[in-house]
Amino acid sequence: MKRNASLFRKKTVDQILIDAHANESGGLAKILGVRDLVSLGIAAIVGAGIFSTIGLASFNGGPAVSLLFVFTAIACVFTALSYAQFASTVPVSGSAYTYAYVAFGELFAWIIGWALILEYAVSNMVVAISWSKYFVSMLEGFGIVIPGYLTIDPGSAADAFAKLQTSGIASLSAAEKLAAHAYEIAPVIGGFHLILDLPAGLITALVTSLVYIGIRESRTASNIMVILKISVVLLVIFAGAFYVKPENWTPFAPNGVKGVLSGVAAVFFAFIGFDSISTTAEECKDPQRDMPKAMIYCLMICTVLYVLITLVLTGMVNYKELNVSDPLAFVFQNIGLDFMAGLISVSSVIAITSALLVYQLGQPRIWMTMSRDGLLWKKFSKIHPKYHTPSFATIVTGLVVGIPALFFKMDFFVDLTSVGTFFAFILVCGGVLYLDHSGISERSKFKVPYVNGKFLVGFGLLVAISGLAFYGQGIIDEWKALTIAGIFEHKLLTVIFWISWVVLSVMSFKYNFSILPVAGILTNLYLMTELGASNWFIFVIWLAIGLVIYFSYGYRKSKLAGHED
User: Which parts of the sequence belong to the Cationic amino acid transporter C-terminal domain (predicted)?
Assistant: First the structure.
């Protein structure tokens, strides 16, 4: 029993606040206000998504995708409100990791902290590589060409060259031809072809240096980049409005509700980033007041921008033409405004840079907080005496992101990143239910608006089941065709979703749970069912590695280990 209790030992809010202010090297610089936090949130949210995700979602759902952005934003608000309550209750760096420590105990806190590495560090590898592609394309627009072997990962180049040797040049796509050529012309040192994605590594080093120097400099850079990219987005909206043809909005939902909902996961990912605000709580002047405001403000601003952009895009060209990786630039090239297309290309580089900055800012602060608790090595919590930043953790983050970005193809990890994100979101929403039930929320300066879900959660379940029975015959037939093994392989998460809804209905009836956090749990859990099984398999392996580290170091070194009864 003692072992189980120790695995789920919890930190009190007072303990966390004392630890945050007892750092030997001095605290972090408190300089961020609401405007700065909103800017950081927009920097994280309005990244590569608005320059790519919108196109595919519009292609599948038509102009009605604009409404999907509204519905998805409402779903995000459930999670954002939960984050805001925790941020006002536990105003320290650490984000979902710290919140899980208070609500669920140390083991869950470690799991979340380990999962957040996927959301921040691993996603930044993908972001850095994405930045490289946009940057190289932008330079080519100005007539500057970087040798191919310095803009690609070795694996892609070697695979393309091998395919060329076995199947001939006719079998290669345009991208594969460039990759194979890069492999052929690359310098050979000691039998190895010198191939690396140099721009991805350089931008990571540059952003890491900026984050290392200080939060003030990072804030200034973020604010400037946000102003630039929002200006370009507004220019696209207003300039594009003159070329909108209302007939392109008919039919509004050409592929029906199914077509619109097919983009729900991609659209949701376009909003991910608001949670990164919570990692800067200790550098905020008044986190208990400003954090909740900033999260809601940045979600509102980004929702309006996304809806307007979607309406303009689908109004300028037919939705069937939007299955491209750069829809904003494409629609202006389509009407002959190459200048606007070039401007958008430059702004996309700025947008992705600002997103990279915010995530590179967040990861070291999570590691710093885990180190304070004894779960990571003490050096991770070291604060630079001059710059007032977590110096060692920042350098490690730069290496962890920059080295793989130089040499690996990270496309596979996009959905894997989302698994970690949804996992964190669910625990934060569940944590608010714990705060309310335990009475800790009495000290919260901001609370999720309380709407009694005693009957509503169960009523919603009955409505959902009735809807399936009357309108979901196709789904029912699909399930009937599956064997038990097939259900376990392909539908396990869906089964977990329905079981969770049943459990939450019972618990809501018993404990009078607020419906908003429950809605956040169910929304995120449903979106998790949209991710592939292979991503879950890798995620489980990732967690297993994390648990080995925890039990070999963190469990024994935890500061709470010395305070057990």
Answer: 515-558
